[in-house]
Every structure is written in structure tokens, then in C-alpha cells.
Amino acid sequence: MSTYTNGAAPDAAREEVQTGETLVEVNDLKTYYEDDSLFGGKPVKAVDGVDFEIKKGETLGLVGESGCGKSTLGRTLVRLEQATDGEILRRGTDITTLSGDELKDWRKNTQMVFQDPESSLNDRMTIGEIVREPLDVHKVGTPEERKQRVRELLSTVGLQEQHYYRYPHQFSGGQRQRIGIARALALEPDFIVLDEPVSALDVSVQAKILNLLDDLQDEFGLTYLFIAHDLSVVRHICDRVAVMYLGNIMEIGPTDALFDDPANPYTHALLSAIPEPDPTSERNRITLRGTPPSPRDPPTGCPFSTRCPVKIRPPKYRDIDEDVWEAIEVLREVLRERSRVELTIGDRVRDLLGKETRLTDIHDVETELFGDLDVPDEVQRHVSEAVEYVANGDDDRAQAYLKEEFGSVCDSERPDLYRVGDTERTSLCHRHTNEHDEPIDVYTEDYSGVLADD
Ligand SMILES: Nc1ncnc2c1ncn2[C@@H]1O[C@H](COP(=O)(O)OP(=O)(O)OP(=O)(O)O)[C@@H](O)[C@H]1O
């Protein structure tokens, strides 16, 4: 493939970026999905202001829970989604602004491989046609040259030339993913977004596809953004990792440093969820309270503030018992969850008729949370006040009241990205400022060595 120069991506321009130099620079990137429904609600803030770089020749992993915005970020980088705001710089050009021929030309440089080989290939096209399509669209070479090129590509990804006239359904999952990779390589891109490329495959097949991707990277000097759920795969193949939560990158840095010595509270939580192979290990899992907030209505301060186990407390409550503090946080989460619950039509009718809906009575919640605790008078007074607001139907006021009284910088201000550790690593957390203990000093668990290679 490296000898093929007939109209594919411009090699001369590519030479400008050397291995290890920045290939893609992302500045304050946002991708929002507007609500097109009749009622025109708030947009989904799928990617909500991320900054990072991808270096030529590296594999950057992108991890995080389902729905945190990984695919949207990947799709925005290849211009399958239009950014709402921010920049994606390639060789000094902001590709979010390209259109027409410029965009078409740029697309040669950047490709995407999708998760599901079952549905990402058009079943009515032959393998040859599928792999050839990008060459046809970009009018690369003569028809005969394109055919020849497809044959080369099939061989590059470990398929056979005679597969040219077969159809996708005649292939296994692993082979179909090879077809998707061949298609992505057709225009000689230098950057490929791999969106969960092995998640749908059997474990034995996964290793083969990962090896293929590794070989292709070496052979063609490719740069990857590797989106994945499986942290053991990420640990194994990525040079650096970005940890995403609710549309934000919480921590980014070299893989080993990030896994061995996580700096951000969310990275701690994510690593603690990895099953422990050693049954004698006494490592406790961090159980996060509640569910991630809706990306339509993310927290005002730190994105992780509603669930963070080491959230900074306001000074006057710094010394109250952990149990009491946790009960306050859970009460606040209950109120947030209530405001998110979509009432059914039946509930709405009951609500309009002034009858009780299926939401639990707030006094029961209060008793359950605080009944057995030794609650300081001042805390009790504020909790009771908030509970009365809820009982009178004013949930918003109760939430605002509790935020005012028990909130801290984590609830009100978005943290900066702080440089942490002695490697090039950054973390989005207020605890990295001098006046607070670092997360690592507050957490008691040690995750060093999680998923370490032997
Ligand atoms: N086309 C769309 N229109 C509206 N909302 C969308 C659209 N695509 C994704 N979303 C929403 O954007 C948020 C981020 O989704 P995204 O698929 O990027 O996350 P993800 O981390 O890749 O999840 P997964 O791991 O499950 O694929 C989610 O709340 C999702 O429901």
C-alpha cells in the first residue's frame, strides 16, 4: 500500500508531521444534539468542552461508561457529526469549518472503523464493491487500478483475492471486521477512529484483529483513536488513555501511569469496577451513588460532582460523620432523580388531579436516610426545611436550598485541567489545588497494578 500514490491522501503534506508530533489538536470541542421534538427541550450535551492532542503514530484509548459521549467524540473527529463549538486542528486547519470539495478532500486523511461488523457493511454489495466504494467516490485511478488496489487491500488485511465477489453474509464476524478495516484503509488515511472494533467479536478473534491493527499501524505509520469498554484491551494496546465522563475528559495521560496511579476520582471509580482476579484480594470496590446525570442537564460545577466519593465539603461541615454526609448527598441525589423521572401519562393525570403520584413520599425518604443517624441539630434543621419544600411540591427550591447550604466548589465551579504526576498527564478535579487533599490521599484503596501486564 505504501507504494500506491495514485490520487490518494497527499503524502507531501503528511510528511510535515513527524512521529511523536501533534497530529490532531482538539480545543474546547462541543457536540450537542438538538432536541427536534415537538416540545423542543434542552439539547443533549454529548461532548461538552474537551481539549486534547493525538500524536502521530500513537494509539490513544478513549474509555468511559456507556453514553458518556465516546462515539460522538469519535464521529465528530471524522466529521460524521458537526461540532457545535470548538476546534479540531489538523496541520493548522480547523476541520470543523471545512465544506464542499475541501471537506471531501480532507476526508481521505481520516477514516472510521465501526463496532458492529454485522450492520456496518451493506449486505447487497460484494466485498469488492464495499472496499472499492471510497476509491470510486474520490475517483482514485482508473477502474482497473481500483480493482487491483482492492485486491491488494484484501490481502493486506488477511483476506483472499477471490473474496472480491462474495457478499458480507458469507463471512464470519472477524472477517467482516477485516473488510471494514480494508475499506477504511482504501484512501491511505493517516488517522483512524476505531469505535469498539473488537467488542462484538469472540475473544479468540479479538486478539487476531488487534494484532492486525497493530501490524497495520507499524507498516503504514497510522495514528489511532481507540474507543473501548474493555479496559484490559486498552491497557494492552494504548500508548495513552483518555477517561471520559458525561461529555468531559476527566483524565488523560500515558496508559501505565494512569492505570497504576490514577489521579482523578472518576478514574479511581472506573478502575475499582474491574473484577479482581485474585480472590484473596481485599480491595474494595467503589460503589458510585445514583446514576450519571442526564447530558441534557449536566451539573453546573464538576461533571462528576453528583457522584464523587471524595467531593470537597464546605468548611463548616468538614468534620461531620461520614454517614451523615453520605445521607445528605443521597438526599440530594434522590431529589435530582425525582426531577429526572419522566412521569407516565397516568402519573400526570393523577398529578393534575392532585392525587399522589408514584414518587415516594419525601418524609419516608427522610426517615430512611437519617432515622438511625446521630444528626447534628444544624444539619437536621436544613434537611427538615428542604423536606418541607418538597412536601409542598417545590422540588426545585429544595434542591437549590440544599446546594446553597451543603454545596462546595465542586457543585458550583467547573474545575480546570491540572497537570498531575511526573508524566504528561492532566486531570479535571478541584482537589488538585493546593488547599485540598489530593484524591489519592482521600481514597484508601490501592489500584496500582490493576490489569498490569505480567
Ligand atoms: N443522534 C443522536 N441524537 C440525540 N442524542 C444522541 C444521538 N447520538 C447519541 N446521543 C446521546 O448522546 C449521548 C452520548 O452518546 P454516545 O453514543 O456518544 O456515547 P458512548 O459513550 O459512545 O456510548 P456507548 O458506549 O453506549 O456507545 C447519549 O446520551 C446518547 O443518548
Could you explain how this protein is built, in words?
The protein has helices at residues 11-15, 70-77, 100-107, 127-137, 143-156, 173-185, 203-220, 231-237, 255-260, 265-272, 322-340, 345-352, 362-370, 377-391, 395-406, 409-412, 439-442, and strands at 22-33, 44-55, 59-63, 85-90, 93-94, 110-113, 191-195, 223-227, 240-245, 248-254, 417-420, 425-428. With 454 residues, the chain is an alpha/beta fold. It folds into 2 domains: 21-273, P-loop containing nucleotide triphosphate hydrolases (Rossmann fold); 322-407, no CATH class. The strands form 2 sheets. It has an 8-stranded mixed β-sheet with strand order 6-7-8-3-9-10-12-11, sandwiched between helices. Strand 9 (240-245) and strand 10 (248-254) form a beta hairpin. Helix 6 packs parallel to helix 7 (203-220). The structure holds adenosine-5'-triphosphate (ATP). Adenosine-5'-triphosphate binds at residues 33, 44, 46, 64, 66-72, 295. Belongs to the ABC transporter superfamily. GO terms for molecular function: ATP binding; ATP hydrolysis activity.
Task: Summarize the helices and strands and which ones pair or pack.
Elements (H helix, E strand, L loop, with lengths): L10 H5 L6 E12 L10 E12 L3 E5 L6 H8 L7 E6 L2 E2 L5 H8 L2 E4 L13 H11 L5 H14 L16 H13 L5 E5 L7 H18 L2 E5 L3 H7 L2 E6 L2 E7 H6 L4 H8 L49 H19 L4 H8 L9 H9 L6 H15 L3 H12 L2 H4 L4 E4 L4 E4 L10 H4 L12
The chain binds adenosine-5'-triphosphate.
The site of adenosine-5'-triphosphate has 12 residues, from strand 2 and helix 2.
